[in-house]
């Protein structure tokens, strides 16, 4: 059981790190490109490519949540830290479901008023950074949990 616990904990950290990296790449590269484009050019690009980004990004949040949940149940010593990790990733996922899914759909369907695209992209980026900070918080709590587990097993 200890081996399964260690594997789930390391996989949680690894997958969440990849998730954070992908979200930072989107914030710094894609959003910069989107904001520098004319609104219609952005919408056309988003219509053509957003489904690929969605398919790539979607497994990260649920994957991290599943692994953190497994770690919560397998790691008896650090349930509070794993619980906080789960809450932070759940908040990240809720942002997606409540804001990003409908907003991304309005971009892809081009149903947003063309004059509101720039302002919406600013809001989109602000919420995106909040998701990144939730994921970083989850990364910190999961690293703390693993560190405590390692120090407790060395005693």
The counted number of beta strands is 0
Give the distance, in angstroms, between the N- and C-terminal Cα atoms. Answer: 19 Å
Report the mean per-residue pLDDT as an integer.
Answer: 95
- Enumerate how many helices there are, as a single number: 5
Shape: elongated
How helical, in percent, are the residues?
over 70%
**Order of secondary-structure elements:** HHHHH
How much of the residues is beta strand, in percent? Answer: under 5%
- Uncertain runs are none
Largest sheet: none
Q: How many discrete domains?
A: 1
Structural category is mainly alpha
Would you write up a description of this structure?
With 155 residues, this protein is mainly α. The chain has helices at 2-36, 39-57, 60-74, 79-108, 117-153. α4 (79-108) runs antiparallel to α5 (117-153). The longest helix is centred in the C-terminal third of the chain and has 37 residues, at 117-153. The model has no long low-confidence stretch (mean pLDDT 95).
Notable traits:
single chain, 155 residues, mainly alpha, 5 helices, 88% helix, 0% strand
Q: Layout of helices and strands, plus pairs?
A:
Layout: H1 2-36, H2 39-57, H3 60-74, H4 79-108, H5 117-153
Helix pairs in contact: 1-2, 1-3, 1-5, 3-4, 4-5
């Amino acid at each position: 059981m200890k081996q399964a616990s260690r594997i789930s904990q390391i996989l949680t950290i690894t997958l969440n790190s990849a998730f954070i990296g992908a979200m930072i790449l989107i914030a710094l590269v894609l959003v910069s490109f989107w904001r520098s484009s004319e609104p219609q050019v952005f919408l056309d690009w988003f219509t053509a490519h957003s489904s690929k980004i969605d398919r790539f990004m979607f497994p990260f949040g649920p994957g991290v949540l599943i692994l953190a949940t497994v770690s919560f149940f397998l790691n008896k010593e650090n349930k509070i830290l794993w619980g906080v990790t789960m809450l932070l990733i759940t908040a990240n996922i809720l942002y997606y479901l409540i804001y990003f899914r409908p907003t991304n759909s309005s971009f892809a369907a081009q149903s947003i008023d063309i004059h509101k695209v720039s302002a919406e992209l600013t809001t989109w980026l602000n919420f995106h950074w909040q998701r990144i900070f939730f994921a970083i918080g989850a990364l910190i709590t999961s690293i703390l949990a693993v560190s405590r587990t390692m120090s407790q097993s060395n005693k």
